[in-house]
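Thread: "does anyone have the structure for this chain?"

Original post by V.I.:
We have the sequence but no experimental structure in hand. Need at least a predicted one for the grant figures.
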Amino acid sequence: MPPSSATVQGGMVMSDKTLLVLSQVYVPDPASVGQHMHDAAAATARRGHRVRVIASARGYDDPTRRYPLREERDGVSIRRIPLGSFGKKSLAIRLLGQASFLIQAFFRGLLTPRIGAILVSTSPPMCSAVALAISVLRRVPIVYWVMDINPDQAVRLGLVSARSLSVRAMEWLNRQILRRAHAVVTLDRFMAETLRRKADLDGRLAVFPPWAPANSEPVAHEDNPFRRKHGLDGKFVVMHSGNHSPSHPLDTVLRAAEQLRDRDDIVFMFIGGGCGKRGVESAISEGASNVVNLPYQPKAELKNSLSAADVHLVSMGNEMVGVVHPCKIYGAMAVARPVLVLGPRECHATELVEFEKYGRCVEHGDVEGTVKVIGDLAAMPAVLRNLMGQRANAVLAEHYSETRLNGLLAEILDVVIKGEKPLMEIQLETQSAARRAA
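Reply from O.Q.:
Generated one for you, C-alpha cells below.
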C-alpha cells in the first residue's frame, strides 16, 4: 500500500506535493529558457511528483503566437496566462508584458494546491519576487535557478545607474531570495563568485551549466535539407544561433563579414531573435550580401539548422563575465561543430574551447584577427574541422550531457520537495579550469 500522503497514477506512486514552476517562457515557445524549464519539470514529474507550470500564453519574442491556456505535456500540468507577453519591440513593451505576467502569476501561484516547492529562474528578472512572496505566504521552499544576474547585467550594459533606487531595490530583493532559497543553482564559476558576494551560500549552491537543446544531433552537410533550402552547398557557414543580446555583442564579427564580402564561399548566418538583430539587419541593408538573417527555427528543424554551420560563433561581452553564461556553446557541441569564441580570455567559453582544443578564440575589437581565424578555418581541410567538432561532441557527451546535468537538477528538486536536509554543495567546474588548477 502506498503512503496515505501519496496516490497511484499509471502504476507510479505519486507524491501529494506539487512543484510549482514559474516561467514567463515555456515550450513550445522556441526560447531556450522555456525548453530548459520544461526539461527540469518533466524530469521531476518522472520522479513521481506533481508539477504545475505557470507561463505566458503568448510568445516571448513573437506575441502573435498563441499557446493553449491549459495543457498536459510529458506529465506536466501547464497553466498559461493571457496577456503575459507583448513582445520585445521596446523596453517599455517588454516591461509591461512582464508586469502583467507577474501580477497574474502571483495570484495563480498563491492558489495552487499542495505546493511542495517552487522552481523559479531569472526570466523575467522580477519573477523571483513573486516566488519569494508565495514562499513566505505559503511557507514553502524555493529552488532558484540563476541563468543570468540582474541588475548587474543592466548596470554593466549602462542601461541603469548602480546608484539608482530601482537597482538598490532589486539588489535587496536578490539578497532576500538568495538567503531564503533552499538551493541556488547557477551556470559557471564566474557567476558563482558574483552570487557569493551577495549572500552566504555555503552548502546551498550548485554550479553546473545548462544542457544542449533536445533534438540537436549532428547532420552531415550532404544530408542536410536546411543547407539545400538556403543555398549553402559549397559554402563555409559561420553561424550565430539563438538570442541576439547586447550582452553578447556581434560588432566585431559583422565588421569582419564586411571585410570578407568578396569571398563568395563564406556566409555569415544569424538565426534567432532579440534586439541584437538590429546590427545584423543594418549590415544587410547596407549591402552585406554574405550575411543571412533568419528567425528562430522550429524545434523539429533545430538539428538541421545547427548542423548547417561549419563553425559556430559564441560571443561573450567583456563586462558580462560573471553575470551571464555562453549557453550557445552547447548547441554547437551537440552537432559536433567547431566553435569560434568572441570574448575575453577569462570566461567559461574561452577556457573550455582553448583547453579542449575544438575551436578558436578572438577578442572583441580584433577585426583583423577575426578575419584571419575565419579564413584559416575555411581553408582547413574538412577532415580536420570534423575532428575538432567530434572532440567538442565527445566533451559534451562525457561532461555536459542532459542525462547528467538535468539529473543533477532533478535530484536537487526531489530533495527539496521531500523536505529533506539541504543538499551538499555541487561544483561541476569547467573541465579545463579544474585540470589546469591541478
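V.I.: this helps a lot. Residues 430-438 have pLDDT under 50 and may be disordered.
O.Q.: and The first strand starts at residue 6 and ends at 9.
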